[in-house]
Amino acid sequence: MSQANPSANRQTLWMFGGLIALGVVAPYLVYPTFLMKLLCFALFACAFNLMLGFSGLLSFGHAAFFGGSAYITGYLCRDLGLTPELGILAGGVFGGALGAVFGWVAIRRAGIYFAMITLGLAQLVFFLALQLKFTGGEDGLQGIPRGQLLGLLDLNDNIAMYYFVFAVFMAGFALVFRTIHSPFGQILKAIRDNEARATSLGYDIDKFKLMAFIISAALAGLAGSTKAIVFQLASLSDVHWHMSGQVVLMTLLGGLGTILGPVAGAVTIIGLENVLADKVGSWVMVIMGALFVTCVLAFRRGIVGELKALLSRSSVR
Amino acid sequence: MEIFGIPVQALMGQLLLGLINGSFYAVLSLGLAIIFGLLNIINFAHGAQYMLGAFAALLGLQYLGVGYWGALLLAPVVVGVLGVVIEKTMLRHLYKLDHLYGLLLTFGLALVAEGVFKNLFGVSGESYAVPEILQGGIRVPFMYLPIYRAWVVVAALAVCLAAWYTIERTSLGATLRAATQRPDLVQALGINVPVMITATYAVGAALAGFAGVLAAPIVQVNPVMGSNLIIVVFAVVVIGGMGSILGSIVTGLGLGIIEGLTKVFYPEASAVVIFLIMVLVLLVKPAGLFGKQA
Fold first, then answer.
1. What distance in Å separates residue A78's CA from the closest CA in chain B?
2. N or C: which end of chain A has fewer CB within 10 A?
């Protein structure tokens, strides 16, 4: 659709150009470690948005993919000595495979049952991470080596690591963008907006939902794996349901079903956490909860959604 | 005496523990089902309301001198009133939207409640004394039965049966069931449905508060006691389906007992057995054991 529309094409070009320009100069303006955390969560939220924003499926178990893949990558890179790019790739594949299993079970029910089922399945993964031998129990996996990218680039250098993370993020972001604007993405939106109509048009909706779930889970896994390499750590908090809740909040706050919303949401939440952590300490959880309530009651379009509405109103005038 | 190589005493002990956990699953999933029936939302704050009930009992004792029996009556009222406020000021505005927003809102509320209590009381928790007349225990064949634990099972079952009777056998319950099916028609018959919805949410929340008071003497009263439990209760609800009140009660008790037995025979799996059963049930009967396919 948008491919045929020159103004939409130009917008897309501007968006990607702007993101890349921002990403290239950012490490010279902001602390790179913070940026890397931000990018990992932004990718995680974009992956999640593909489900909730574009397919209407609320998964309350995305921490399982994020954290599960972090463990897999950590184990492969630290204990089996895989290179970081292979470790991250394996994490993405693991996320997708786990997503296929979750989806196969959960898609049998819709709506809030779907949310509760994914939450239960993720709790299963949480207990596995707690009890299995290779995950290190309460300690998690510590000291995961960053290693050499393709044997050439030393990722212990923060700037090199940053650009690698940025490349992973852009690839994931582009994949989400492409998916949404493909015929496949159009059908997902049709299912979101009117499931009965999509069924009657002959689409096998369960198959489309499952595909969306797998892509989303694979990208969430990719984000988790990258995070494990950056922070050299995979821990129980990555698979905890708080993490699943946090990604919902990022997506909701940024704007459900908008391309840039999850990025804006991740920037806001991670930035807020960073600023608040020193000032209010443990009250962060209360603030996150209050943000949740505010978003649901009064700010359902999210940051990007509200901006869009504002722009279209002013352009009409 | 042994069964399958397990001493009967250990087996009975775990069965009792399972029965107690099952009682809590039953009361909590019943509350969820009642709220879901009329409001069409999943009350994520249910665990927080259970925790609030326990804290209301604890704080009532420490600061106001309200004893166990007073707390058993007052804590549900406190939690219920809080429920009225939540429904009137927040949930009410979401009924026209996708049901998922109700889940998200109550999730946020649960985070706020848990966070506030974590800051005020830490995570380690405090213990609440068993009331005097329920202290001690009796010897029954094969085991020593602490009286308080027996009381918990009896009280939980009594509340469940009372709820079942009210909903299925009284005229108030008939109106409630009618409003679940067709709120518009019930409203047209002159019944104030919005008030009914508020009351239903308050009663569901109060049930969770009641369970919290019951639990206070046997668990550590701490801010995360609810969130750990509520995820399991969600799985119980998925397994049972929310179509039938008796179904919720039976599923809750049954799963508690299965969990207890798993602790005896294969302790490593006891934390996950309910989630595994959830997967199995979904594969065989997606609507749940007592549910109707939505």
1. 27
2. C
